[in-house]
Amino acid sequence: MTTFEPVAVPGEAPPPDSVAPRASTAEAPTSVARLNDTIRGFIQGWGSVWVEGEITSWNVRGGNVFGRLKDLVTDSTISFRIWSSTRNRLPADLKVGDHVIACVKADYFIKTGDLTFAVSAMRHVGLGDQLERLERLRAQLRAEGLFDPARKKPLPFLPHLIGLITGEKSDAEKDVHRNAELRWPQVRFRTRYAAVQGDRCVPETIAALKALDADPDVDVIVIARGGGDPQTLLGFSDERLLRAVAAASTPVVSAIGHENDHPLLDDVADVRASTPTDAAKRVVPDVAEQRALISQLRARLTMRLTQRITHDIAGLEQLRSRPVLRDPWSMLTARSHEVHLLTARGRDRVGRDLDSRERRTGELTAALRALSPASTLERGYSITQRGDGAIVRDAEQAPEGEELFVTVARGRFSARSEGAVADPRPAGDGPRAE
């Protein structure tokens, strides 16, 4: 903003019923008229100055314009007036929200004590200056990583509740609602209205953004405006709004609707939509497309399952066509006959072997019995032993009076020898019994 220094107050003789303001005391005060005259004379010495700011008020009364001009950095404002004769020389498209420079001259009304500025010239700030400032801000934000795709949040597939920030009763609101409901009739919105241009645009948009971001039911936030010239879109390149969008935890969609010289909000937002209609298409899926996709997927799944089942049935039939599976009892029957035959053969062989061994055992038993001393004793023979256990084989071994022990087939008894006696059998008849 252009600065200036006050000039000396022109000399003026004080009225006879008053004193100069500097010389006033409690006992000799100056008059209100005298004070206003002094202020007016001081202000008129300033001359004309060029100032830069934003039009925040533009009221036309009787061909004259009464408005306010706001500083671009602070909240400082001045009031101005444009006489009808001057207005005819100014651009016809001046309006609230425009960034302008104006040549103004201060005027102090002594009757009301109001300070205002008369405009003698006013024009839009050159687009080149605006773009230069925006490019500097763009470079700064890009260096900080606010444009980095990696930090941008993905949109939910089907949001349960959409937060919408737009102007009240605006075409942008109608476009978003109409196109979203056409795509998904059950879609729900939570709308916060905000000024979409002028000095209220940034603070109201930031307040609406924070309110929706703090709402746990809101899944995505759309900031929508139906386009406009670069002058009216400056609020959407404000650094305060851009940083608030970057700090939001909820995905934000920029739908300002201005293809050329788009505001910086498009670069900071998680998703940029070219128009409010495009925003509705990006945020809400098309129910018809989803149904068609489901039908396609269902058809593909049915085809794959049919192919798999058909393939498995063919494999099963191939297995069932094999003889062993077609008539599994035939193999068991054949094996059963074989097992029976082998079993009978085994039994026969084992029986013959047992009979043979039984006969052999009988033969051996008979031979053993024939050779057994018990068999000899059964035939009437006996075994005679002396008292010391020696077997008597000679009559001389049993002298008279010798006690003998005789073992027969069934039992044992004692006897006493009476000495040798003559053998009554003829010679050669074999041994005699003792």
Give me the secondary-structure category.
alpha/beta
Low-confidence stretches: 1-16
Count of separate DSSP helical elements: 12
* CATH level-3 fold name of the largest domain: Rossmann fold
Report the top-level CATH class of the largest domain: Alpha Beta
Strand order of the largest sheet: 1-2-3-5-4
CATH superfamily name of the largest domain? Succinyl-CoA synthetase domains
- Taking all residues together, what is the mean pLDDT? 84
EC number: 3.1.11.6
Subunit structure: Heterooligomer composed of large and small subunits.
GO cellular component, one term: cytoplasm
Biased composition (Low complexity): 1-11
Structure in words:
- This protein has 434 residues and is of the alpha/beta class.
- The chain folds into 4 domains: 21-125, OB fold (Dihydrolipoamide Acetyltransferase, E2P); 130-285, Succinyl-CoA synthetase domains (Rossmann fold); 326-370; 374-416, no CATH class.
- Helix content is 39%, strand content 20%.
- The protein has 12 helices and 13 strands.
- It has helices at 32-44, 84-87, 127-143, 171-183, 201-213, 239-247, 265-268, 276-283, 287-320, 323-326, 328-371, 373-378; strands spanning 48-61, 64-70, 77-82, 99-109, 114-124, 162-166, 189-193, 220-224, 252-255, 271-272, 383-386, 403-408, 411-416.
- A 5-stranded mixed beta barrel has the order 1-2-3-5-4. It has a 5-stranded parallel beta sheet with strand order 7-6-8-9-10, sandwiched between helices. A 3-stranded antiparallel beta sheet has the order 11-12-13, with no helix packed on it.
- Strand 12 (403-408) and strand 13 form a beta hairpin.
- Helix 4 (171-183) runs parallel beside helix 8 and helix 5 (201-213) runs parallel beside helix 6 (239-247).
- The longest helix is centred in the last third of the chain and has 44 residues, at 328-371.
- It is rod-shaped.
